[in-house]
Amino acid sequence: MRILCTFPGRAGDLLWALPTVRAIAESAGDPVGLQISGEFAPMVDLLCQQPYIRMVYADTNWNLSDWKERGLEHDWQPPAVAGYDQVIHLGYRRWPELPLPYEIFNNAVEHAPLALLPAPDLDRPWIQVRLWQEATPLPLTIGFTECHFETKVGLLALLQGRTQTPEEGFLAVMLAAPGSRWVTEADYPPIEWLEAARRIAASKALLADCSALHVLAVAIGVPVVCVEPMEARWNGIFWPLGQDGPQVTLVKGHDHRPTVDARHVGEALDRALQEG
User: What is d(CA 11, CA 149) in angstroms, rounded to the nearest whole number?
Assistant: First the structure.
């Protein structure tokens, strides 16, 4: 049976959808097709490397930016699909109430005729890549969005003293999104999805905020130290593995609330790099 899964995005949500896509493929005994929004075409090379995915189609007629203009709250279903025996739409029908991978899994169970579909296995890495070998791997990768950009730039400046040696300098690589302020203002080179995955896989830990690169590291099986200034991102739906390690550690202060204090971040990084 030829099965197609569809999921619009965004990037982090798409990565959280993949454990369910893998469960569907393993249950069917055959890789599945995956249709995504055209906005996420840069992820296709990475997604196509996964053994449970037969092919990936980035639909240019299915774009998140169009939804508001078309008066749609959430266009979870692509405009058209063809050539498959079964199509399973994994996109959100509501604002998620469960941790994201389980919300997506429920969509598969409730809206597709699947028998005994196993729950997504988040303990087993679901992204595989060939290791990055273009240069010497560094122990720490960093992946921040532009949100609270100035705060994060300052944080990295304060952290350099904790994560460098006189001989080698700052022992980290920034995974800067093409076109972001990290590229245009902070002068980091842009890195595409597949290269970012390879660099993360070759590192001991990722320092990130609660965004797609944090999910990518979880999917690869690399520990994540998270710094998240945005309170809306502290919601439990974004933390299916919890906030206190060992896979994902949200840095918190003495009051047990998330913090950007460089001293607490440095201590969390020290532990992650020693254990990695």
Answer: 19
Per-residue model confidence as pLDDT tens digits over 102-131: 999 999 987 766 666 888 899 999 999 987
Burial 187-209, CB ≥16 within 10 A → b, else e: ebeebebbbbbbbbbbbbbbbbb
Alpha-carbon separation of residue 176 from 100, 145, 184 (angstroms): 25, 8, 10
Sequence-distant (6+) residues with CB within 8 A of 45 are: 192, 193, 194
Q: Kindly tell me the sign of the dihedral angle through the C-alpha atoms of 241, 245, 246, 248.
A: positive
Give the pLDDT score at 189: 94
Kindly state the percentage of the chain with pLDDT values over 70.
88
Cα-based distances in Å from 31 to 7, 62, 261? 16, 23, 45
The Cα 26–Cα 10 span in angstroms is 24
Closest CA to 268 of 218, 205, 202: 205
Looking at the DSSP assignment, which residues form a beta bridge with residue 101? none
The tokens describing 226, both together, are 């998270």
- Residue range(s) occupied by CATH 3.40.50.2000 in the chain: 140-275
CA distance 47 to 26: 16
What DSSP string runs through 163-185? SEETTTEE-EEE-BPTTSHHHHT
Amino acid (one-letter) located at 255: D
Judge whether residue 240 has pLDDT over 60: yes
pLDDT of residue 67: 58
* Residue length of the chain: 276
Residue 11 has phi, psi (to 5 degrees) of -60, -50
CB 242 within 8 A of CB 135: no
> Which CATH number applies to 140-275?
3.40.50.2000
